[in-house]
Specification:
single chain, 298 residues, 5-stranded mixed β-sheet, elongated
Length: 298
């Protein structure tokens, strides 16, 4: 045990295998044996992991999952403040990445308690590397909302994002999600569905979103990570009025005021604000069946 009441302890975030147990980082076994407290997302899965690694936990094991994260964080922070070495592990991958951990890290930092990590496997980085899509710049978007309207709204917010996008998704929602992505991003946008990474039945399915949505409609099993190509760069010459209007609408639906949305789209396209404004007004009047009129930007 390393606990000392004279100085604060250390919070250790430990990566765990996302599939193949032999991917466990060497330091993980030592941390499991030496920690004063092990906070685990699922204590049963932790038990299976320690048995596979041939390690006997040396400290107290407590559960730390979404349902008790808020309540248990103060208890763990007090243990840390008292000098304990607290090891945080989730079911797979790195804590805090779409898993419990953020609240505890934030609370420890607030108390000036040391936080370190045992780097380990990551579904996000593994999927990116296998996708065949650009990886020099990317965004991790986690899980999309379950409700169709909220999901589409979130997708439209990033429809013009140039960086590669990474998502987690449940297998029973994959077909709906890919169909929504095809609608929001375009059916021809390239993507990769990474299934059961590092496991026996690992599969990476690559192709346009439209084709992947049809494939997923037949049913897909396992843990899923979806990687989507970023939006292509469009020069001013390739942007017609309808595309300018669509971009303004996407920004408005994401919460921007029309004036700010028009200014942003104009800046992206390298066009005068007046040109974008006129396109928006024309589209609005056409929808109402009225003649086009321009009354100013304010």
């Amino acid at each position: 045990m390393t606990s000392s009441p004279d100085s604060p302890g250390t919070l250790v975030l430990a990566g765990t295998p996302i599939g193949d147990v032999s991917d466990a980082p060497p330091r993980l076994s030592k941390e499991l044996a030496d920690a004063d407290v092990i906070a685990a997302e699922d204590t049963r899965r932790l038990r299976r992991l320690t048995q596979a690694l041939g390690v006997t936990p040396g400290g107290r094991v407590v559960s730390y999952f979404e349902g008790n994260e808020s309540a248990r964080t103060p208890e763990l922070v007090e243990a840390l403040a008292g000098g304990a070495r607290v090891l945080l592990v989730t079911d797979a991958g790195m804590p805090s990445v779409s898993d419990p951990g953020y609240r505890l890290v934030a609370a420890a930092v607030e108390r000036d308690i040391k936080v370190t990590a045992v780097p380990g496997p990551s579904a996000v980085l593994t999927a990116l590397a296998l996708s065949g899509l650009p990886v020099d710049r990317f965004c991790f978007e986690g899980f999309l909302p379950r409700k169709a309207g909220e999901r589409m709204g979130r997708l439209r917010e990033v429809a013009e994002e140039r960086r590669t996008l990474v998502y987690f998704e449940a297998p029973h929602r994959l077909d709906d999600t890919l169909a929504a992505m095809a609608e929001a991003f375009g059916a021809d946008r390239r993507a990769a569905v990474c299934r059961e990474l590092t496991k026996t039945y690992e599969e990476v399915k690559r192709g346009p979103l439209g084709e992947l949505a049809k494939w997923a409609a037949e049913g897909v099993r396992g843990e899923i990570t979806v990687v989507v190509e970023g939006a292509p760069e469009k020069g001013a010459d390739s942007l017609d009025a309808s595309e300018l209007v669509r971009r303004v609408q996407v920004r408005e639906e994401a919460g921007e005021r029309r004036k700010e949305a028009i200014a942003a789209v104009a800046a992206e396209a390298g066009l005068p604000k007046r040109e974008v404004f006129d396109a928006v007004v024309a589209a609005k009047n056409a929808a109402r069946g009225a003649p086009s009129e321009s009354k100013g930007l304010s």
